[in-house]
Amino acid sequence: MTATLPEPSATLTTPVVEVNDLNVTFSSKRGRVTALDGINLSVGQGEFLSIAGPSGCGKSTLLKVVAGLTRASSGSVHLRGSSVSGPRRDIGYVFQRAALLEWRNVRGNILLQAEMRGMDKAKAARRADELIEMTGLTGFEQSLPHELSGGMQQRVSLCRALLHEPDVLLMDEPFGALDALTRERMNIELHRIWRETGTTVILVTHSVAEAVYLANRVVVMSPRPGRIMEVLDVPLGKDRNYGTTMEDPVFTQISSRVRDLLGATHAGD
Amino acid sequence: MSALDNVRRPAGEARSGRRPKAHEDLTAPTAAKPARASKWLAELWRPLVFVIILLAAWWLVTNQGWVAPFILPSPQDTWTTAVEHAAYLGQHTWITTVETVLGFLIAVVIGELVAVLMIYSKSIEKTAYPLILFAQVIPKIAIAPLFVVWLGFGMEPKVVVAVLMAFFPIVISGMAGLKSVDPEILELTSTMGANPFKTFLKVRLPASLPQLLSGLKVAATLAVTGAVVGEFVGANEGLGYVILQANGNIDTAMLFAALIIMSAMGVLLFAIIQVAEWFLIPWHASRRSTGSSAAGA
Ligand SMILES: Nc1ncnc2c1ncn2[C@@H]1O[C@H](COP(=O)(O)OP(=O)(O)OP(=O)(O)O)[C@@H](O)[C@H]1O
Ligand SMILES: [Mg+2]
Description:
- The complex is a heterodimer.
- Chain A is α/β, with parallel strands linked by helices.
- Helix content of chain A is about 35%, strand content about 25%.
- Chain A has helices at about 60-65, 105-115, 120-135, 150-160, 180-195, 210-215, 240-245, 250-265, and strands at about 15-30, 30-45, 50, 75-80, 80-85, 90-95, 170, 200-205, 215-220, 225-235.
- Chain B folds into 2 domains: about 5-60, no CATH class; about 75-295, MetI-like fold (Orthogonal Bundle).
- Chain B has 13 helices and no strands.
- The interface of A and B includes residues 136, 146, 149 and 192 of A.
- The structure holds adenosine-5'-triphosphate (ATP) and magnesium ion.
């Protein structure tokens, strides 16, 4: 039923992220590596964009350039209308590893965001409670990271990235280390959070199912030097039930297309 | 939205089923309180037994007349001497303690400061590192007389030698600790718009504590050595002076008493830092593993 809903066209709204002719080259002692080559990309307000591609094609680099953590060699990147020239604070970033502070409990790790930004304490605490509740971490507020499972750690990391209600959420293979079942669960939670918050999301992932289930558009990249091979629209509606979506012919069709594209670039990943 | 319900329930199951450890750890602190005394005993019985065996062997060797008393005094002679001269020993122990602690504290402040400066500035690191290494490889005993010439016979040269001895491990461990921060966490804090001072206070410094504290333990024992070395070179007070005097009088009982006090001082300083470690880094893996092994023993 979800597939029949008309898709709100994300590309018509104002772009939140705009990447033009982006090139990134790393030079090291062993020579120069072109990580990204001629990337053009525009992400609309409230859009969910998935990026899939073989390992080493520059997906992480692309996210880091958007966040201002890595410098573009040429081309331009605009985030919310202003040129990216250094680390941006109007984003939420989720790394592949949860990257939590070992000595802070779940709450403390989430509130790091607020402390660093100098946010209003009471408001941040309330928001943290909401997020803890939303991600099913209730009862574990006082637990230290080593007392949590990988999935729970990743949820803490997600809460931390959402605490300041960023307009743009950048996620770099956030569920890569999780088992298939936990990952599915996290996908459903992320889909719900995206619907509820209306945040613009760019998600890097190796999982085709994850990419297609969550996204409005899927970007498939080619191996080094990283280029955009194809951008696929995912007209599956905004309210996706995991089970029915998985069996939706539109879903299977797009998924197999993504798989074909990825398979053409390299044998199995 | 039945899918959401379907999904939320197994999540709860997974939490209580798959990771019981979290619950155990959460309840551990309350359960551990009455067991604290036995935990200490579990930690300490091995060294205690070792010390008792050592004392017994000492007693045996000296009381059977196998070794002449001026070579190795008996434990009871050492004890008697220590008690007889308690005031004398106490006064000199106090001097050495002050020198050691002062030297150690100064080394901590300077060492950590230098470590921080070297972490934040490559050019400071490149300038200071070779100098620090050079200062470290010079034998302290060889330059100690120089400090006496410069600073006189008071406490100052001893404190300086103690600082020099303790400084190196603090700088090295401080730097290693500050460098051990996950670079992704630093990238993360930069997206939080945090100023460098906040990042230092909330991320870098806490992350550096495990390594820094290891360095402090080494430094504390070296500070004792430094103070005594300083006293050897030129002093009229302190345990080093007591040892020299006793040596001159072939009063080995007194010498042994001073030696034992000196070792006890080093062990005590070490233990203080160990306790500080329990309070400062209860989250660290090293604390966790010793905790569980102690409980298992
Ligand atoms: N800091 C760096 N210095 C030098 N080369 C780098 C640096 N960061 C990335 N690269 C290179 O750029 C290329 C793209 O790296 P990137 O991490 O973006 O790939 P990726 O698509 O995220 O891969 P994966 O899926 O394995 O995470 C790689 O060839 C990598 O070696
Ligand atoms: Mg990557």
